[in-house]
Amino acid sequence: MLEEDEGLLKRRAKECRDPNEKIRYFALHFLSIGRSISEASKAFIVDRSTIYDWMLQWKHEKTLSDKPKEGRPPSFGEKEEKEIKKLVEESDPSKHGLDATM
Question: What residue ranges define each of the domains in the chain, with the CATH number in brackets?
């Protein structure tokens, strides 16, 4: 089942930034190269049922990302994160009317 997705799983495992998601991709890549579920379970220190759950999620969704969780939404979104990053990298508060001389 996973053999045909070997390249995609490998690429996603390398590119993924979320550590938990990365482990899932590595585990399924491990299976895609012919290793057994028992071996994957031992290598990635998870139950066999967890491996089966990841396989089902991959089969149906072609992603191993966590689902959004209930609770308070993030304070700001991607647009605001980019703006803050730009301001930090710019590192010139005087451009924005702030006197930050020391």
Answer: 3-61 (1.10.10)
